[in-house]
Design a protein that fits this description.
By secondary structure, the chain is α+β, with helices and mostly antiparallel strands. It contains 4 helices and 8 strands; from the N terminus they run αααββββαββββ.
Length: about 160
């Protein structure tokens, strides 16, 4: 009897991210993040923009009296949209680290799907600034905006 060959090691997170980027699998990239799955995040390219969408679910409600989305879920959507934009646009797979995040809540988020995008406003060698916006039915009427600074190590 011969010894069974050991199973090959599971791919690392970086290897899985690299494979998702290579195959243009936006959703596969997002599905690597458990919290993104909990929030119901999806992603798709619309023109040249990566749009991240938080699908409405009852567990996202923060104020059941209105009802309105929890501010933390809106903040997480905005931060996630920025991170996914940075990872997607980078020439190498980078895992940005949030240095600061400032969210401006402009109006109550209705219990519907919410969309967000991140736009890089300044990219240095180690630090990148990103502006984000989240909207629901009307992109011209955002429910929240944000600005974040990320530490980005080039690979």
């Amino acid at each position: 009897m011969t010894a069974a060959e050991p199973d090959p090691p599971a791919p690392t997170l970086i290897e899985r991210m690299t494979a998702a980027k290579a195959s243009h699998d936006y959703q596969g990239l997002i599905d690597l993040v458990p919290y993104a799955r909990f929030l119901g995040l999806t992603a798709a390219m619309q023109g040249d923009e990566l749009i991240t969408t938080m699908r409405y679910s009852g567990h996202l409600i923060g104020n059941p009296a209105l009802p309105a989305l929890h501010g933390g879920t809106l903040g997480a959507l905005l931060e996630s949209a920025a991170i996914f934009e940075l990872v997607w646009r980078a020439e190498t797979v980078v895992l940005p680290k949030t240095i600061t995040l400032t969210v401006d809540y402009l109006r109550s988020g209705a219990p519907v799907d919410t969309h967000a995008r991140g736009v890089v406003t300044r990219q240095g060698r180690r630090v990148t600034n990103v502006r984000m916006e989240a909207w629901q039915a009307d992109r011209a009427a955002p429910v929240a905006t944000a600005h974040a600074v990320f530490l980005v190590m080039r690979g």
